[in-house]
Specification:
CATH superfamily of the largest domain: Hypothetical protein af1432
Largest sheet: 6 strands, mixed
CATH architecture of the largest domain: Orthogonal Bundle
Helix content: 40-55%
Radius of gyration: 25 Å
CATH class of the largest domain: Mainly Alpha
Distance between the termini: 69 Å
């Protein structure tokens, strides 16, 4: 069972984070995850539905290393973990974020000296560990996936050093959960024979499958070992982007990577990918688990989630109406509010441009909305670098609810917000994640925003209106008297560029 202060009715936070159900802003909240391999502190800041990472630091302590043999926490890891927690407590105090929420998982719950470790942490740092059991850990990790991936449906698989949790998710809910001892630290003592380890993994997964009934579903991977394998998959494929969140792999392709890793120099790969020695040490055994996971559960697709137990704790506190919000749009609104010259203009720009996209799918509409909200958030950057800065910000940002093609589409649209041509750009390899038609659509959106921004002194709809007649391939711009005054030479050139991208005929009309 989860252990916490019996007087605490609000779970690990000790207080409700969202007293106001309509709350969008969230003050800084600190969370620490004490795992079998690492101890990490994250401070969330910004939009509640899509929190920004104000601070993120981890230490590879190896707290659970050797636990399977001794039944106790690793002595050196324990010293390092207490030192890390002492530092984190002082940092939190300096940031003025209030008490840290500290969650401990498999190592602390399974070790015979776990209670003594809890007492030591409280005595030395003033921090109270909230130790969760396996099913609760699975639930929190699954909720973390839902925070950044609201439509996620399938199976969440969270691997740590001493355990691996699985949970069904769908329709914004967490279903059946199971906890196993398939963490690499545990597997290391099963046998020196890979075939015997594979048989053991198969047996455990078959028992999980009987409870989960998850064959053929999408699997969402959570955990450091999975992220390292995904990064290595990118390396093998020469994938142009290194953002791991929402990186998607087909089982057959991933099996090729696992075969490739068996014959590769892991030390060389560790150096090339910037992976720590402590993480890479667990990769071979994690690969064995992943291979059998594919064999037994037969997933349709395997996706990586950078969100896990820490984000799940935030999701736990959110009322339904806040959970229902789109994390991408919430993040874009937050960025617009703090970084644009005219906060609120993004919505007006979207409404002005909406006639250009009458048949856009819901997914495309949300990308158009996000682009309009972000269209003016890099204005402080030097003009020579503004276009590529837009692209870099979006493709590298920690955004939820956005797959890799979506990142590139959004980035390319914002690039064209500031630059007519993308030819010869250093970013060209990334453009290949989109089809030619998608690249053209992103260019049209960018040039439309570039033109619409010329009416930023007011609501564009008050002075101009766009009428798109696809059957005639004709775009008409209807202007009021003030609209004509705003439609100067630069605006005319931008309108011509938009017309060229659309390969359409232009008309200029009068509007009352």
């Amino acid at each position: 069972m989860s252990k916490h202060d019996p007087d605490d009715d609000n779970g690990p936070f000790g207080r409700p984070l969202f007293d106001d159900p309509s709350a969008r802003a969230l003050s800084r909240v600190g969370v620490v995850d004490v795992g079998s391999n690492s101890v990490r502190m994250v401070v969330f800041d910004g939009a509640a539905r899509s929190p920004a990472y104000f601070f993120n630091e981890k230490l590879m302590c190896g707290l659970g290393k050797g636990l399977a043999e001794t039944g106790q926490l690793n002595p050196e890891g324990r010293v390092r973990a207490v030192a890390a927690l002492r530092r984190f407590a002082l940092l939190a105090k300096g940031m003025g974020i209030g008490p840290l929420t500290v969650v401990a998982t498999a190592a602390a719950r399974d070790a015979s000296d776990g209670p003594d470790f809890q007492a030591e942490v409280l005595r030395e740092t003033g921090l109270r560990l909230w130790v969760v059991d396996g099913p609760e850990e699975a639930r929190l990790s699954a909720q973390g996936v839902l925070l950044g991936w609201p439509e996620a449906k399938g199976l969440v698989c969270d691997i740590g050093g001493n355990s691996m949790e699985l949970a069904q998710i769908g329709d914004g809910q967490v279903g059946t959960r199971v906890s196993t001892q398939l963490g690499p630290f545990r597997l290391a003592r099963i046998s020196d024979n890979p075939k015997k380890r594979a048989a053991h993994i198969d047996q455990v997964l078959a028992e999980c499958q009987a409870q989960l009934n998850s064959e053929g579903q999408r699997i969402y991977l959570v955990g450091g070992s999975w992220r390292v394998i995904a990064r290595l998959d990118m390396e093998r494929r020469n994938y142009p982007m290194t953002v791991l969140h929402e990186y998607r792999m087909l089982p057959a392709d991933l099996l090729q990577t696992l075969d490739w890793l068996e014959t590769s120099n892991l030390e060389d790969l560790r150096t090339r990918t910037g992976t720590s020695s402590a993480r890479m040490e667990l990769v071979p055994l994690a690969c064995e688990v992943l291979r059998e996971l594919i064999k037994v559960l037969k997933p349709s697709e395997i996706d990586v989630s950078s969100y896990g137990i820490r984000e799940g704790l935030l999701y736990e506190q959110m009322p339904a109406r806040l959970r229902a919000r789109d994390p991408l749009i919430e993040a874009a609104r937050s960025v617009e509010k703090t970084m644009s010259r005219i906060p609120g203009f993004g919505k007006k720009l979207y409404e002005f441009l909406q006639p250009l996209f009458p048949d856009a799918s819901p997914e495309r509409v949300r990308l158009i909305k996000a682009a309009c909200l972000l269209h003016d958030t890099t204005w402080r950057t030097h003009p020579d670098y503004r276009a590529e800065a837009c692209f870099d910000n979006v493709t590298r940002a920690n955004l939820g609810g956005l797959d890799h093609p979506g990142r590139v589409f959004l980035g390319l649209a914002l690039l064209h917000r500031y630059k007519n041509s993308r030819s010869g750009s250093r970013l060209e390899p990334l453009f290949e994640l989109l089809s030619e038609a998608e690249q053209r659509d992103a260019e049209i959106l960018g040039k439309a925003m570039r033109f619409g921004a010329m009416f930023a002194v007011s609501d564009p709809s008050d002075v101009a209106r766009l009428v798109w007649r696809p059957e005639l391939n004709q775009l008409e711009l209807k202007l009021t008297k003030n609209g004509h005054a705003l439609f100067g030479e630069v605006a005319q050139a931008r309108f011509t560029s938009l017309i060229s991208a659309m390969k359409a005929e232009a008309l200029i009309g009068e509007r009352a």
